[in-house]
Structures are given as C-alpha cells and as structure tokens.
Write a structure and sequence with these properties.
By secondary structure, the chain is of the alpha/beta class. The protein contains 13 helices and 12 strands.
Length: 355
C-alpha cells in the first residue's frame, strides 16, 4: 500500500513554493482583519405546545475582541463557555442577537445571504472530529474539491487534479492518495485532509474548532506544527478554539479566557501564562499539565468548587462569583467591566482592577 506521507517530488515542492509566494498577502499591522464588538448571541428557550418563550440561553454575552492579519487568537474555557458559538457567528452561521462582526471592513452580522455566500471563500473552518466531518462515500479528491467546485474556483478536470495535488502536498500527504476513501486513513491523516479541503478555497481566515482534541498527543503536536507552518507560508489568520492551554499557548499570539459566555481575561499568550490575573485563569493554568514532573508536583493546584451555572439564568454580577473564593457582595451584585491594567492586559475582575 502506498505510504500517504512519502517525501514529495522536488519539482512539485518548487511549484508549491512559487504558489505560496504568489498567495502571501502584504502585511497590514495597522488594521485588524476581524473586529468583534459587543457581540451577543442568545438562543430562545420555549415551553409547551404553543412554544411560549420562557427565557434565553446567553451563549455569548457582550464579547469584544480583534484579530490582526496573520495572527492567531486563542479561545479557551470549559465546555459551554461560548467558544464555538463565537466561531459560528464569525462564519456567518448564526444570526446574532446584537453587536458587530467586522471582517475586512464588512459587517458579517448585516450583509445579505448572497454576500455571505461569496465571503465563504475567504472565511472557512476546520472542525473537531475528522471521523465525522468527511463524507465516507466521497474520495479524497472529491472532498478537497467540493468547496472549490461550489464556488467555481476551478474550470476543468486538469485544474482540479493540480489543485488536489498541491493541497495534499501542502498538508504533508502523498498526492497518490487522492483516489482513496476516508476510512482508509488514521485520525491524524483525516484531519490533514480536512485542512487540505479548507485550504483549497484559498481562504484568508480559518476558525480552528478543537481540531486536535480528538487526536493522540503525538499527533496533536504534528497537526499544531502543520497549522503554524501553513500560517507562516500563506499569511493566514486563525481563531483557535480549544481547552488544552498548552496547545493554545503554543499556537496563539493572544488568548481570550471565556466563562459562561463572557471573556474573563484577554492578553498576549506569554503574558497570560506568566501573569494570570483572573481567579478563573489561575485555576485553569494550575490544572494544565507541564512537562517537568518535579515542578508539576510542587506547584499549587487551585480547585474550583461547584458547577458551572446555567446560561439561561447566569449569576447576577460576575458570572464567576458562585465558584470564586475571593467573591464578595460587590462581585455578586455588580458586573465587573473589562479593564486594561497595562501591557495590553485586559481583565474583568473587581479584585484585580479595583474599578
């Protein structure tokens, strides 16, 4: 059987390098590619045969952030914190309750369906489960070309074959596997195929939604390294959604820590891990494994008590007050604003900011 990860031919590597050079965008650090302002995404909760509305699930509640060209924003937090919902809002999969999502000067929350359909060539995603995201009845070639054909990005069979060859080479797979089906591949190889499918659209922005959480640790490192290499070569911009803080730190320029639909802390990746300020961030980092067993045993663990409150009925004041050992009466009655405490480090905590 053909090894799907054999070294590629030198002439194909040179062709791919020329293609990468032609696609790399001009750097523009003065303007963010994506700006999200006061984003709210509420899902109505109904009851009875008449579907009477009894409340809202506040999946995302007043979130603001930006992502610069060629950079990665990491979104971390427990399950149900709203990370994937933000990704779906950015991709235009949800009609937002309120707020702005400005992508390259266009408000995704306000544009028409036709405009959003055209924009999907630039905005795409790689999803969590490579076993469920690939159609088992389609060959690798058809999977990769599905989006390109829908958007009429290729004009003939030869052009399609060349595109598939370039994409498989880019993600480290042998182009000879194009005629195979998904069940013939391992989980890591399937995720490479998913990445090749996304790249075939020639996007500028990719939402990476838990793309390594279903993979073995050794394979996770390979996929993260691949995503970093592709970003550097093609000048792509990412939102990287995950719950493994070590993976998110390795890939992200900035990290936003989310809890119950809100951003608790937002800063540079190294700054966040060196000086976590919010009690929730401190708890997450204390629980993250580190490669030094001696240091791992010696450090203090912060254990969170209680359960995450319901997003239908979040706590008054700070969302984290029911599980925070520092919470006082002000925390339980007054929502803390997001405050910049210096060094581009933003945190929403009365105890830290004194606001």
């Amino acid at each position: 059987m053909t090894n799907p990860e054999l070294p590629i031919r030198q002439e194909l590597r040179e062709e791919l390098d020329r293609d990468i050079a032609s696609r790399a965008p001009v750097e523009d650090s003065a303007r963010a590619l994506l700006r999200v302002s006061n984003l709210k995404m509420y899902f109505p909760v109904t009851k009875g045969l008449l579907k009477r509305k009894v409340g809202d699930v506040k999946a995302v509640d007043d979130v603001t952030f930006s992502v610069q060209h060629g950079e990665t924003l990491g979104l971390v937090g427990e399950s149900g914190s709203g990370k994937s919902t933000i990704g779906n809002c950015v991709l235009g999969n949800c009609k937002v309750t309120s707020g702005q999502i400005i992508y390259d000067g266009r408000d995704i929350a306000q544009i028409s369906k036709a405009e959003m359909r055209a924009l999907r060539k630039e905005l795409t995603t790689v999803t969590q489960d490579p076993f469920a995201s690939l159609n088992p009845r389609m060959t690798v070639e058809d999977i990769i070309l599905e989006g390109a054909r829908a958007h009429k990005l290729i004009s003939g069979k030869k052009e399609g074959e060349e595109l598939v060859e370039r994409m498989l080479t880019l993600v480290g797979l042998n182009p000879q596997v194009a005629s195979r089906f998904p069940h013939e591949f391992s989980g890591g190889q399937r995720q490479r195929i998913s990445i090749a499918r996304a790249l075939a659209m020639n996007p500028s922005f990719i939402v990476c939604d838990e793309i390594v959480s279903a993979l073995d640790v050794s394979i996770q490192a390979q996929i993260v390294g691949l995503m970093m290499k592709i970003q550097q070569e093609l000048g792509l911009t990412y939102i990287f959604i995950g719950h493994d803080l070590s993976v998110v730190r390795h890939l992200s320029n900035n990290v936003a820590v989310m809890y119950l639909g809100k951003i608790m802390e937002l800063t540079d990746s190294d700054e966040l891990y060196a000086h976590p300020l919010h009690p929730y961030t401190q708890a997450l980092i204390s629980a993250a494994p580190i490669p030094n067993p001696t240091a791992d045993r010696a450090r203090e663990r912060i254990l969170l008590e209680g359960e995450v409150p319901s997003p239908i009925n979040p706590p008054k004041g700070c969302n984290f007050c029911t599980r925070c050992k520092y919470a006082d009466e002000r925390c339980r009655t007054e929502e803390p604003p997001m405050v910049d405490v210096g060094n581009n480090h933003q945190v929403a905590c009365h105890r830290v900011t004194g606001a």
